[in-house]
Request: fold
Amino acid sequence: MSTPATTTRINPSSWNAPFRFDHAQLRPAPREVFTIAGQASVDDDGRVLHEGDVAAQLSLALHHIEQLLSHVEMTLADIFSLTIYTTDIPATLAAYEALTERLDAHGATPPAALVGVTGLAFPGLAVEITAQAGR
Reply:
């Protein structure tokens, strides 16, 4: 699914463009809302993968989100809110292309927030991402 033609993207400034998010979006009310809990760089048993590699952690967390979306026949284009939690904002910004290239592939620019935290669910995690999608 792609962003509906009736979505109005609201960007009073353009500093956000390299990060592939809109300041706000006005969308028609979805029939269904899909909420995704924090996804991180873990394997099927919950073991942390890619400790110390923020780009790989971003990529795997987003991969998990894409897998969950596929269960309900949605894609990254259906996300209307994205929150990235990180224990290292500079490293996350330096690795942000791991996220933006995947968003670009779907023409997705969901409103997003990057939030610095002191810790995440498991030691060794640097990134955790939550998302909300709708159709």
